[in-house]
Amino acid sequence: MLRSALNRLVRKLEAEGTPLAPAEKEALLRLPLTLREVRADQDIVRQGDRPTQCCMVVEGFLCSYKMLPDGERQILSFHVPGEIPDLQSLFLEKMDHALTTIAPSTIAFIPHEAVNVLLEQHFRIARILWREMLIDAAISREWIVNTGSRDAYARISHLLCELFYKLQAVGLTKGTSFNCPITQTEVADATGLSTVHVNRSVQELRGNRLIEWERGTCTILDLQALEDAAMFDLDYLHLASAGAA
Amino acid sequence: MLRSALNRLVRKLEAEGTPLAPAEKEALLRLPLTLREVRADQDIVRQGDRPTQCCMVVEGFLCSYKMLPDGERQILSFHVPGEIPDLQSLFLEKMDHALTTIAPSTIAFIPHEAVNVLLEQHFRIARILWREMLIDAAISREWIVNTGSRDAYARISHLLCELFYKLQAVGLTKGTSFNCPITQTEVADATGLSTVHVNRSVQELRGNRLIEWERGTCTILDLQALEDAAMFDLDYLHLASAGAA
DNA sequence: CGACGCTTTGACCCGTTTCAACAATGGTGG
DNA sequence: CCACCATTGTTGAAACGGGTCAAAGCGTCG
Question: Domain residue spans in chain B?
Fold first, then answer.
């Protein structure tokens, strides 16, 4: 289990394109990971916390969010296996958002010190992780576009395209199907819509035969049409293959 | 002029809290900067570009934005003097958004190679710049909240609070007044609202005596009330003083 | 079987958009 | 110094996307 967690990390870092040197790989495998099984809807880190470790998603599904004084919850991103959602806590002491599971998950914790040592001794790994964090930032920018400039139908389409490509990149899709434990309420919190309206839009997507989505499994029936509806442009995910083009 | 640009950079980096060592400061001052005066509404970098240099705002005002196929423009962030808005192009080859001036500006260009050398030789500077980029990401997250969860009145209030604190951090405010060359159309593109509605909301803010805003100068009359209206929480800007608390 | 969480539905309402003018402002050239 | 033009800001009326509220269906799991 611990081995598989570390392997996921190595694979993730190599997905950038550059294979790791033996010394680098070894340094990664020596990282002191602590695994934890977490059930759904458990906060991993809370807003205002000052973490001393960061966490990697080994299995499951996380999201980060902020709560507003008026009770609104805004989801800021979804995190799939291989990602290290709060790596930024290495540099920004105080969490400005919370991190929670939205499905039963396996999380690996890594002490900050260990990561800091890693970064100083292996600048190439530092560069790869730096790049990862910038991709997260690129996704955030696209989410601004999503909530700011697209209508409900396009927003939800876009979210589904993003999830599909992110999951595909880590090998968690079968064809155009993927496990999608996100509830419509969570889609609503992520897109700035009401659950009612999300529901109606999802039904519209189903009616147009763009997707099927029930009991935690989402199948994209017409990816091209879904991307068109979403005005989706893959570039922002900065996937290795796309970058090479 | 070139000296003042470099000084602004040094000051910005030291604003993090840690004063730079003489060797570090010297390395910065040796950076090969190219200055350029640019009038308003000129693209500095375009979506799809693969820049070989990055740029620092010395004077003026920039914004980054994306265009959608349907003609909508979404502004993603505003950039004030001292910031290096496209530093990320060091790590993400292809620009996923554009960068443009919204006021006459002075820009300093720095070749990627020079920055790369700097990062490898001075890990502390790398850490500071890394942190800067993460703060940009934190601001993007807050913009997701803004467009996703706040109504028009709060969105505009929030934008003004953000600008005020960012400008204050680099010493570009006088009291609670600051130079604000942003048009209402740009506010609309940044907040995902129509210009008409922005106009009405700004008038409401004026009517409630929270702000004055005319001819490029914005004065906040009641900062506390403006922050309340915006549900503003300073934490996300990760200013040095706030981090120390 | 019953309870709980998630999805679905209908009816009504409101914030925001759209369209279409018009007024103010500021910069430019004669 | 004024006439002109292009931006930017302002206004009103009508329409619409999406929100709210409230209740009912449905799966699933102890």
Answer: 2-141, 150-244
Give residue-wise pLDDT tens across range A225-238: 999 999 999 999 99
Chain C bases closer than 7 angstroms to a protein Cβ? 5-11, 15-20, 25-26
CB contacts < 8 A (A, B): 132
- Which of A90-114 are b and which e, b meaning 16 or more Cβ less than 10 Å from the residue's Cβ? bbbebbbbbbbbbbebbbbbbbeeb
Q: Please report, rounded to whole angstroms, the spatial distance between the CA atom of protein residue B149 and the C1' atom of nucleotide D12.
A: 28
Confidence of residue B245 (pLDDT cuts 50, 70, 90): very low
Does the domain at B2-141 match CATH 1.20.120.1200? Answer given as no
* The two three-digit tokens of residue B223, written as one number: 């900062």
Nucleotide nearest to B40 (CA to C1'): D7
Residue–nucleotide distance: A154 CA to D17 C1' (Å): 13
Of B221, B195, B193, residue with least CA distance to B208: B221
> Which chain B residues touch A66 with a CB distance below 8 Å?
141-142, 145
Question: Three-class SS of residue B147?
Answer: helix
Contact (CB<8Å) A140/B145: no
Q: How confident is the model at residue A241 (pLDDT cuts 50, 70, 90)?
A: low
Tell me if B134 and A138 make a contact (CB, 8 A cut-off): no
Picking from A88, A96, A127, the nearest residue to B235 by CB comes out as A96
- Going by C-alpha positions, the residue among A80, A174, A95 that lies closest to residue A135 is A80
Please tell us whether the domain made up of B150-244 is placed in CATH 1.10.10.10: yes
| C-alpha to C-alpha distance for A44 and A107, rounded to whole angstroms | 9
Type of residue at B154 = A
* Closest alpha carbon to A31 in A14, A51, A8: A8
The full DSSP string for B63-126 is EEEEE-TTS-EEEEEEE-TT--TTGGGGT-SS-SSEEEESS-EEEEEEEHHHHHHHHHH-HHHH
How far, in Å, CA of B99 to CA of B102, rounded?
Answer: 10
Q: Which residue of A has its CA nearest to B138?
A: A96
Q: Return the SS3 of B194.
A: coil
A2-141 and A150-244 in the same fold: no
B77-123: per-residue pLDDT in tens?
A: 999 999 999 999 999 999 999 999 999 999 999 999 999 999 999 98
Residues A145, B66: C-beta atoms closer than 8 Å = yes
What CA–CA distance (Å, rounded) separates B183 from B163? 14
**Which nucleotides in chain D lie closer than 7 A to a protein CB?**
7-13, 17-22, 27-28
